[in-house]
């Protein structure tokens, strides 16, 4: 009798995990080379915060940056529904899109202009630089920058 009661109490807690946001509010968060920070949800980097990524930051939700974001590593967007990226003034070295959502629901929506320093990898999904009815955003790759994996169903 105690086991069903225990399970019943645990199930509502599991529901809350689906809406996770990692909020950095005034701290410094560092992902070292070779390390991966996996967030089952979104990342909110507030104005007084620093996010430094030399490894991989993988998220299934949005990335909203209002603080300092330095990413010499990879930002990996791997959700199953549309995701959004608000980079602030950050330049990221490598961005990978691997969104497993159904066609039309596997977008990475760019909410601000973005410079990718080296590599944009498209595994699955589309990178959209204009939200319907919104401002057209600029995606820049400097000389020598590469786009890998562009094809049907995976393009900018």
From TrEMBL:
Report keywords, A-Z. Signal
Signal peptide span per the entry? 1-18
Name of the protein in question: Autotransporter outer membrane beta-barrel domain-containing protein
> What lineage does the source organism belong to?
Bacteria, Pseudomonadati, Bacteroidota, Cytophagia, Cytophagales
């Amino acid at each position: 009798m105690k086991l069903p009661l225990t399970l019943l109490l645990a199930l509502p807690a599991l529901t809350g995990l689906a809406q996770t946001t990692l909020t950095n509010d005034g701290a410094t968060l560092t992902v070292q080379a070779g390390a991966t920070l996996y967030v089952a949800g979104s990342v909110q980097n507030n104005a007084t915060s620093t996010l430094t990524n030399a490894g991989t930051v993988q998220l299934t939700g949005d990335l909203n940056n209002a603080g300092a974001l330095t990413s010499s590593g990879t930002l990996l967007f791997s959700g199953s529904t549309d995701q959004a990226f608000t980079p602030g003034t950050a330049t990221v070295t490598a961005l990978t899109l691997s969104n497993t959502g159904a066609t039309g629901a596997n977008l990475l929506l760019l909410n601000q202009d973005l410079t990718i320093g080296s590599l944009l990898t498209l595994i699955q999904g589309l990178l959209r630089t204009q939200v319907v009815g919104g401002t057209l955003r600029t995606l820049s790759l400097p000389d020598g920058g590469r786009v890998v994996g562009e094809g049907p169903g995976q393009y900018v």
